[in-house]
Every structure is written in structure tokens, then in C-alpha cells.
From TrEMBL, chain A:
InterPro entries the UniProt entry points to: FAD-dep_OxRdtase_2_FAD-bd, FAD/NAD-bd_sf, Fum_R/Succ_DH_flav-like_C_sf, Fum_Rdtase/Succ_DH_flav-like_C, SdhA/FrdA/AprA, Succ_DH/fumarate_Rdtase_cat_sf
Protein name: Unannotated protein
Extent of the signal sequence: none
Residue span, Fumarate reductase/succinate dehydrogenase flavoprotein-like C-terminal domain: 488-585
UniProtKB/TrEMBL annotation, chain B:
Pfam family for this entry, one: Fer2_3
Family according to the record: Belongs to the succinate dehydrogenase/fumarate reductase iron-sulfur protein family.
Gene Ontology process terms (BP): respiratory electron transport chain; tricarboxylic acid cycle
Family matches, as Gene3D superfamilies: 3.10.20.30, Alpha-helical ferredoxin
InterPro entries per the UniProt record, alphabetical: 2Fe-2S_ferredoxin-like_sf, 2Fe-2S_ferredoxin-type, 2Fe2S_fd_BS, 4Fe4S_Fe-S-bd, Beta-grasp_dom_sf, Helical_ferredxn, SDH/FRD_Iron-Sulfur, Succ_DH/fum_Rdtase_Fe-S
Limits of the 2Fe-2S ferredoxin-type domain: 3-92
GO CC term (a single one): plasma membrane
Protein name: Unannotated protein
Keywords for the protein's UniProt record, in alphabetical order: 2Fe-2S, 4Fe-4S, Iron, Iron-sulfur, Metal-binding, Oxidoreductase
Cofactor: [3Fe-4S] cluster; [4Fe-4S] cluster; [2Fe-2S] cluster
Organism: freshwater metagenome
Pathway stated in the Swiss-Prot or TrEMBL entry: Carbohydrate metabolism; tricarboxylic acid cycle
Length: 631, 252
């Protein structure tokens, strides 16, 4: 048995990074460069993380395409996009540091598309006032991952020259799942998991753990996320005593593929709209003009002529409403389909063929062309795409200290990227995810390194190891229990139908009961076959994580009696300034998730003053506006 | 419109294995990975298959379908005849772990051996200026999703296990070409080390790699052949040979 102490595979590192997407790799580079020994854990092969699916670009106010851009404008756009529920300090750090993080990637070999002057080209995206997204065609995420993957190899080559071993200071553990974050005396002590290939168990001892596990999309039926998006980090953090903030906010990307069924949910990049794609219903109506909310009326064109002129002259025209923040566009599509103006497959049309030539489409949107041609038999240079909302991103996540990415309440635990909460408020702008993972990946690496240097490692006790090992063994010991695949499908039905894009109190109540029931039954999941690369066994652990995430989302959603960003309540349709003053905090008591309200930090005067008071009045209570900042 | 199809799946591990026949439902528009997942959920809970994005972007679900190296997520079931049996087997050039999953660590070892990008010493972040036409040559190679289908199909390693030690394979020839054509990279002799240390010379340009590339990268024409030509130029350039001789004389 692997619980035998002598047989257990053990590793000791200074910093353990769980997750090898953009945030994890950026954190690992930072921790290694500050002189520490780092282990990177990935659930799949190295370089396959969900970041590769990011298409449009990384937002950074470099000002290459419009010199009026700067961090203050980016900060304002981010806060507006999040409907002012963002943690102001995270949005501030993000806006200030994104340009440096992009330029740094270029120093590591990244090759972004260029402007005529030879600088990094920047493209338009929803909610960004100026063209701001550094990009490589429509495969920007792949470029980020590959650049950082190769940066890690470069560091390993330097270690080989200095220490004679590529893996002396930074090692990638591929296809390994972490089942538990371990604590001793209230501090992080390491993590426990198993190799997916063999099923054999591994103990990591490390004083600092950085969670960078990405999102939760697989909790839902229709999602743009890959199989890895099972909320592992969210659940690991909860179980380790950390909090999750604002888990009710999920981003439904307005444009996922809808036909054929096997591709339903696969992402259609926002760049299609950024490059001039328009949305129409089956009556041929360009419907987005009907859906411009009051808070955005002065920024978005209310007629086709002005919207079309904007592509040529951005200084004298308002933006087309197709480029509203994602939550607005997703709700609009949902309403059109519900009103019977959708396609037979439940989508609307997205057409870029009328504005751009076939040659330019293939050059600027190569993977979209490829994806529709090969998977749907649609040539997007000639015909419209059919699109509809798909679960894409979770704004909620681990509650962290903005400057260090330290998880609140758990010494030694850090979180960065999609798994961390607060940065995006109630809705994330497109392009702000790739920049987020660079900015806060680096900060998590720095934060963990500073912590490790002033703490002493705590050894993991035998009792802790035995408990973690017993949990892994459990599904094999049962026979004739529940099937993890069916339970997963059942959970996805519940979240899709009851916790989806439009919510009501009664449905959420129903969802909470159903999720509790599935969770009860999941304790009885049995696994067929052995430990060796057994997907049924792997899913049993993923399912456990998804259930905790779904519970946290449903319980946060039922509490928030307003509609804001990625949380829309049919029974509370308006945005409520009183609710803007609160975050929802989820914690886990070992038995169930509990949700409470917590006051949202208020921004200081220098940030407050970046906005027009008239605009702030749309979001804040009169008292808050009168206060004019926290200092 | 669901129909039943015959799927033949290789099941087993390094010690033993063989083909197993199953009947499974296939719906309109489905890809081979969809039906494999259906088999997994309903008939073989422990069937091992790698996949991530199911959108042709991550390069995880590489396997051989009716003997051809392909991504299962980008292969339509409808591409095969109504009565045709679809046979799925693991990549042949790499050791089997279980069922359709192989040990591709060879590729990650090779990746470590390719010298990293080296920017000019005095270049400051944000100061790089490059023309779009110049970055496009390397960008073609950076489209690579590391599915390793080119590595799997390349007969230099597919049929000759012993070559693996000295041959990096097409995926890493495009990596070297990408760095060699990178407008800012300053490391010299990339082509020569491709020839002398990474086995470029063993490639006899049969273009099998280009044929299987799901990203349609012109591996042979745009990376391998230009490097081979330049290596020849460098090696047999009389002016360079003369300069080299002088250098050697000076040193001695």
C-alpha cells in the first residue's frame, strides 16, 4: 500500500504551484527567479492548460494604437465592466502593471502582431475605451503559454549549466492531481495527490502553496472550458480554510458555438465583434441597439450609421453596441432567443463576412475560420455563424490580499488568475484575464517567496498523510455505488437549468436542495477498474470539487437580491446601490458551505476622483458619493 | 439523427493489449472524441484517453484513427462510411501507458535540449521594434499546438527507436527555425547545431510531418528545407571556410 511510509513518494520544495496555466507559470518564474526551489503541478500535460484557449488578447494600456490610453482609462473601464464591485486595489495594480508584463513576455521571446511603427499591435474589445489588446491573430493564449513554458525551460537550462541538472530548482510534475492542501499548526505544510498515469500517491512538503487552477466551467452543461475547469483550486482552498468571494458571478460569454450539438459551447472569440462582426436575429434585425443600458448610453452608438463610422473614426463616434461588456450582450442574445427571434438551434447570427474580405478574415481570425469550417461546415468568410451564450469564466474566487495574492486567513496559501476573486467585480472585460494572470501570477510568486524567506517549513505528520491517503483509496473500496459520470451529468443539468444565466429565488432554492442530494450520493461513488490512468477514478475527485463550487455559487446567488454583471435575478431585475457595498464570502465548515455578507473596501480619493461624479451616482449610494473616497 | 457505429478500440498497457469492438451511438456532427467519451461514460468507465479543449487548440487527443495520426476532436464521424468500422489506436512512435494514452515525455526531453531564445543584451522592455512581415515567419511555427502528430508519423523515429537519441524531430526543427528566424534572437549557429546536435541531417524530406499537421504548418518547406539549404551554404561556403582557416591560424 502507498500509505506505507517507506513506499510513499515524497518531495520537498520551497514553493508548490498548483496549476500550469498562465498564472501558475508566471508565479513559478517569479518564485524561481527570487532564488527558491519550485514545483509546478499540472493536471494535464505541460503546455495544455486552458489558457491556450484564450483567443482575443491581453489588455494593457501601452497606448500603441491610441496614445490617449493610460492606466487610469484602463482602471475606469475595468471598474465599469465589473459594475464597481471590483476590489479597487486589484483593478489599480492590474491597470498599472499590465504593460510591463506584456513587454516582459516580449523579452522572453513572444511574438505579438505589430503596428506599422513596429510596436505591439492592439485591438478593440468590449468595454475597453481604446484598442488595448495585445494579440497574436486569435491564438493569444497559446502564445502566452508557449512563451512562459519556454521561459521555464530557459531557467532549467541555466540550472543545468550551474548545477548539472535541468530539474534541480524547477520541476514540472505533469498529469498529477492534488487532492488536498495540507496544513500543520494552522500553516501551510504541503499538498497530497496522485499521479494520473499510475494512480500512485505523492506527498509534497512546502511552506508555501500557490493555487492557480483556473475556473469552474465544467460545473455547467454548456461551457467553453476544457475538462480541467472543475473548480479544484476553489474547493481545495475552501477545505484548507480560505474564503471564496462573490461566487454568484459567472460570466456567460455571449458567443459560443451552438450547432452541431457536439461543439455546443466552444468559444467564438470576441475579436469577431472587435473586428466588425455584427449580431442579427432571424428577422435580420441588428438587435443590440435595443439593449444599451442607461449607464452606457453616452458611450455606445444608438444607430447603425454611427456604429459603422466608429470603425474608421473612433474619436468622433460612439462604439457599436456589439462591443458592450459581455454580460450585456449575453443577456440580449438570451432575450432575443426567448422572444422567438432565435435560430432553430437556439442561437442568433454573428456575421463578419459583410465587413471584411475573405483574405483579411482568414488572417485576423484564422482559428475561427478553421473551427467553423472543420467542425460546423460553415465558411465564415461567406456566411454568418450561429452563436449563443456559454459558461466561460468565474469572477468569484479565493479571497486574497491584493498586493501579495495571499489567501485571507491561511498563512502560506496564495491564489492567482481565474481562481482568485475580487479583481473583476461582477463581470470581467474580455482581455483582462490574460493580463490578470500575468500581473497577479507574478505578485503571487513574489508574495510566496517573501513569506518562505521569513518562515520555517513545518513537516507533515503521519496522521495527516494517512488521512489524505484514506480519502484517495475510498472510492475503490466501495462496490455497486453511484457512477461518477452520471452524477456529473446530473449536476450539469441542475446548474444549467436552475443557476444559469437568468435566475430566480425559487429555482435557486430548488438547486441548493438538488446539489445537496447529489453531494450526498457522491459520497457513495464507486470506481471500476484499477488505479492506472482511470478517468472514472479521476472524475470522482473532480466531481467532489464541482459540487462544493456549485453549492457556493447557488448559495451566494440566492442571497444577492439584485441583478449585476454575471448575476441576473428575474425576481430582482435592477441593480441596487446598497448591494454594491457588499461582497459575499463563502466558507466551509467541513460539512457545508456557508455564505455571509462582508463590506466591500471603498476606494481612496485619488481613484474616486478619476470618475465623473455623475457616473458614480449611477452605481453608488448618495452617502458614498458624498464621502468622495475612503481617505 | 443518432445511428449506431462500430468502433474498434485498442485497450491494454505496456505488457499486453488488443483491439476490442463496441457498438456506440453517434449523433449528427459528432467527432470521434465524442463517441469515445460516450463509450467511456456508458460502457468502459476506465477507458484511458487524453483530451483537454475539444476544439483543436491544445493538441492532447492525438491518436491513430484507421491508421492515420489525427486529433480525435477534429475528426468527424461522418467522414467515415455508414458501415465502416472506425479503429482507434494509440500513437505508435511512443510507448503505451494505457489504452489510447502514450508516454510522450520524449518530446519534453527534446524541448529542454533546444537552446532558449536570447534577446539582445541592451534591449529594454517595451523598446523592441519589429515589422509584421518579419514576425510572421516565426509566427507560423509558433502556431504549433504540440500535438506531436508530426513526431509520431516521422519514420526516422517511428520505425527506428534507436534514432530517438540523436533526432529531435519535426516539432523541434520548427522550434529551431522559429528562433533562427526570430528578428531579435542573437544566438548564433542555430542551423549548424540543428544539423550537428539535433539530427536535421537524418530527415530526408518525405513531408509526412507536413501532411499530418492539424495547424497546416509547412514544416518541411518553410522550416526544414530552408535550414538544410543554409547549413549546406555555411559548410561549403569557400569564403567562410577561408575566414575560418585564418581564425584557426590566428588562435594557434
Amino acid at each position: 500500500m502507498t500509505t506505507d511510509k517507506s513506499a510513499l513518494e515524497r518531495h520537498k520544495y520551497d514553493v508548490l504551484v498548483i496549476g500550469a496555466g498562465g498564472a501558475g507559470l508566471r508565479a513559478a518564474v517569479e518564485a524561481r527567479e527570487s532564488g527558491l526551489r519550485v514545483a509546478i503541478i499540472c493536471k494535464s500535460l505541460f503546455g495544455k492548460a486552458h489558457t491556450v484557449m484564450a483567443e482575443g488578447g491581453a489588455a494593457a494600456s501601452m497606448g500603441n494604437a491610441n496614445s490617449n490610453d493610460n492606466w487610469q482609462v484602463h482602471f475606469r473601464d475595468t471598474m465599469r465592466g465589473g459594475k464597481f464591485l471590483n476590489h479597487f486595489r486589484m483593478a489599480e495594480l492590474h491597470a498599472k502593471e499590465s504593460p510591463d508584463r506584456i513587454w516582459e513576455l516580449e523579452m522572453w521571446g513572444a511574438l505579438f502582431d505589430r503596428t506599422k511603427e513596429g510596436k505591439i499591435s492592439q485591438r478593440n474589445f468590449g468595454g475597453h475605451e481604446y484598442p488595448r489588446l495585445a494579440h497574436v491573430g486569435d491564438r493569444t493564449g497559446l502564445e502566452l503559454i508557449r512563451t512562459m513554458q519556454q521561459k521555464i525551460v530557459a531557467l532549467q537550462q541555466a540550472d543545468k549549466r550551474e548545477h548539472g541538472d535541468y530539474e534541480s530548482h524547477i520541476k514540472v510534475f505533469a498529469e498529477l492531481t492534488i487532492t488536498e492542501i495540507l496544513k500543520e499548526n494552522g500553516k501551510i505544510a504541503g499538498a497530497y495527490g496522485y499521479w494520473r498515469e499510475s494512480g500512485s500517491e505523492v506527498l509534497f512538503e512546502a511552506p508555501a502553496v500557490i493555487i492557480a487552477t483556473g475556473g469552474v466551467g465544467k460545473t455547467f452543461k454548456i461551457t467553453s472550458n476544457s475538462w480541467e475547469g472543475t473548480g479544484d483550486g476553489h474547493a481545495l482552498a475552501l477545505k484548507a480554510g480560505a474564503n471564496l468571494v462573490d461566487m454568484e458571478f459567472l460570466q456567460f460569454h455571449p458567443t459560443g458555438m451552438v450547432w452541431p450539438p457536439s461543439v455546443r459551447g466552444i468559444l467564438v472569440t470576441e475579436s469577431v465583434r472587435g473586428e466588425g462582426g455584427i449580431l442579427t436575429n432571424t428577422n435580420g434585425e441588428r438587435f443590440m441597439f435595443k439593449y444599451i443600458p442607461d449607464v452606457f448610453k453616452d458611450k455606445y452608438a444608438d444607430n447603425e450609421a454611427e456604429a459603422d463610422r466608429w470603425y474608421e473614426d473612433q474619436d468622433n463616434n460612439r462604439r457599436p453596441p456589439e462591443l458592450l461588456p459581455r454580460d450585456e450582450v449575453a443577456r440580449a442574445i438570451n432575450s432575443e432567443v426567448k422572444a422567438g427571434r432565435g435560430t432553430e438551434h437556439g442561437g442568433v447570427f454573428l456575421d463578419v463576412s459583410k465587413r471584411l474580405s475573405a483574405e483579411i478574415i482568414k488572417k485576423r481570425l484564422p482559428s475561427m475560420w478553421h473551427q467553423f469550417y472543420e467542425l460546423a461546415g460553415v465558411d465564415i468568410t461567406k456566411e454568418p455563424m450561429e452563436v449563443g451564450p456559454t459558461c466561460h469564466y468565474v469572477m468569484g474566487g479565493v479571497e486574497v490580499e491584493p498586493d501579495t495574492a495571499a489567501a485571507v486567513g491561511v498563512p502560506g496559501l496564495y491564489a492567482a488568475g481565474e481562481v482568485a476573486g475580487g479583481m473583476h467585480g461582477s463581470n470581467r472585460l474580455g482581455g483582462n484575464s490574460l493580463s490578470d494572470l500575468l500581473v497577479f501570477g507574478r505578485r503571487a510568486g513574489m508574495g510566496a517567496a517573501a513569506y518562505v524567506k521569513q518562515t520555517t517549513a513545518t513537516p507533515v505528520t503521519d496522521a495527516t498523510i494517512a488521512a489524505a491517503a484514506a480519502r484517495i483509496e475510498a472510492p475503490f473500496a466501495r462496490s455497486g455505488g453511484e457512477n461518477s459520470y452520471s452524477l456529473h451529468a446530473e449536476l450539469q443539468e441542475v446548474t444549467h437549468n436552475l443557476v444559469g444565466i437568468i435566475r430566480t429565488g425559487t429555482e435557486l432554492k430548488d438547486a441548493i436542495e438538488k446539489i445537496a442530494d447529489i453531494r450526498k450520493r457522491s459520497a457513495n461513488v464507486a470506481v471500476s477498474g484499477g488505479r492506472k490512468f482511470n478517468p472514472g477514478f479521476h472524475l470522482a475527485f473532480d466531481l467532489d470539487n464541482m459540487l462544493l463550487v456549485a453549492e457556493s455559487t447557488a448559495k451566494s446567488a440566492i442571497g444577492r437580491e439584485e441583478s449585476r454583471g454575471g448575476h441576473t435575478r428575474d425576481d430582482f431585475p435592477g441593480m441596487n446601490s446598497d448591494w454594491r457595498q457588499f461582497n459575499h464570502i463563502s466558507s466551509f465548515d467541513g460539512n457545508q458551505v456557508n455564505v455571509r455578507k462582508q463590506a466591500l473596501p471603498f476606494m481612496p480619493k485619488e481613484l474616486f476622483d478619476l470618475f465623473e461624479v455623475e457616473e458614480l451616482k449611477k452605481y453608488m449610494t448618495p452617502d458614498e458619493v458624498a464621502k468622495g473616497g475612503s481617505n | 439523427m443518432a445511428r449506431k457505429i462500430n468502433l474498434r478500440i485498442w485497450r491494454g498497457d505496456a505488457t499486453d493489449g488488443g483491439l476490442q469492438d463496441v457498438q456506440v451511438e453517434a449523433n449528427e456532427g459528432e467527432v470521434v472524441l465524442d463517441v469515445i467519451h460516450r463509450v467511456q461514460a456508458t460502457q468502459m468507465g476506465d477507458l484511458a484517453v487524453r483530451w483537454n479543449c475539444k476544439a483543436g487548440k491544445c493538441g492532447s487527443c492525438s491518436m491513430e484513427i484507421n491508421g492515420k495520426p489525427r486529433l480525435a476532436c477534429m475528426t468527424q464521424v461522418a467522414a467515415y462510411g455508414e458501415d465502416e468500422t472506425i479503429t482507434v489506436t494509440p500513437l505508435r512512435a511512443f510507448p503505451v501507458i494505457k489504452d489510447l494514452v502514450t508516454d510522450v515525455s520524449f518530446n519534453y526531453k527534446k524541448a529542454m535540449e533546444i537552446p532558449a531564445y536570447e534577446p539582445p543584451k541592451d534591449l529594454k522592455p517595451g523598446e523592441a521594434r519589429m515589422e509584421q512581415v518579419d514576425v510572421e515567419r516565426s509566427q507560423e511555427f509558433r502556431k504549433c499546438i504540440e500535438c506531436f502528430l508530426c513526431q509520431n508519423t516521422c519514420h526516422v523515429i517511428r520505425d527506428h527507436e534507436e534514432n530517438k537519441k540523436s533526432f529531435a524531430g519535426p516539432r523541434f526543427f520548427i522550434r529551431i527555425a522559429e528562433l533562427d528566424m526570430h528578428p531579435l534572437d542573437i544566438l548564433k549557429n542555430r542551423k549548424r547545431t540543428a544539423q550537428e546536435e539535433h539530427g536535421l541531417g537524418m530527415c530526408n524530406i518525405t513531408k509526412c510531418c507536413t501532411e499530418v499537421c492539424p495547424e497546416h504548418i509547412k514544416i518541411t518547406d518553410n522550416a526544414i528545407i530552408p535550414m538544410k539549404e543554409r547549413v549546406v551554404d555555411i559548410k561549403y561556403d569557400p569564403a567562410r571556410m577561408f575566414a575560418g582557416l585564418l581564425k584557426r591560424e590566428k588562435r594557434s
